[in-house]
Amino acid sequence: MPTKAPPGNRFERRRAETRQALVRAARRILAENGDTGVSIQAIAERADVGFGSFYNHFASKAELFDAAVVDALEEFGQTFDERLSGIDDPAELVAAGFRLSARMADSHPELMQVLRRRGLEYLHSDRGLAPRALRDLETGVASGRFSPVDPTVALSALGGTLLSLVELRFTRPDMDGDEAAVNLAEMVLRMLGVSADDAHDVARRPLPDLG
């Protein structure tokens, strides 16, 4: 999960730990069944905190579940920052995003289940992978690497395709997820104006290990 600087004193640390325990509990619930109708008491028990602690941090369950999704989005984005920091080619970054996402269904299943269930409504969020993907699209268009398309519209197409890939990974675990991701990445790059031969090559470049 995203890391933050530790609060300055014991009270603040305990408060932060309680809040994070509630967020973790909400993430697990979203990943398991997406049931946001669960009671606050059940959430508190899942987090191993007192019932009254909930309202010290969140005004409602909706606020908590929103915080849980944002937490997952930030972890998702930070993972990409860590793994792809040495790549400058916007086309390679787009392709790597698809391929790493497919692998994270196995390496980070809880995180990817949260995105699978709630990702569409956060497609244009200012958190997580969306602003990073938009930046890469804008760079690709400005440099001529991609066709002159509206980056926001292109982000909608990429985000929807990525979420469909995540859905495929969970509903068809028998499929070769890496191969499916490579093929989708190649198609997306061609959609963005990358030549067929180049898209084929870029979509198959070596990926960093997720660890």
UniProtKB/TrEMBL annotation:
The entry's DNA-binding region: 39-58
InterPro entries named in the record: Homeodomain-like_sf (IPR009057), HTH-type_TetR-like_transc_reg (IPR050109), HTH_TetR (IPR001647), Tet_transcr_reg_TetR-rel_C_sf (IPR036271), TetR_C_40 (IPR049513)
Keyword Glycoprotein applies: no
SUPFAM superfamilies (UniProt xref): Homeodomain-like (SSF46689), Tetracyclin repressor-like, C-terminal domain (SSF48498)
Signal peptide span: none
Domain HTH tetR-type: 16-76
Keyword DNA-binding found: yes
Protein name: TetR/AcrR family transcriptional regulator
Pfam families, sorted: TetR_C_40 (PF21306), TetR_N (PF00440)
Keywords on record: DNA-binding
Gene3D superfamilies per UniProt: Tetracycline Repressor, domain 2 (1.10.357.10)
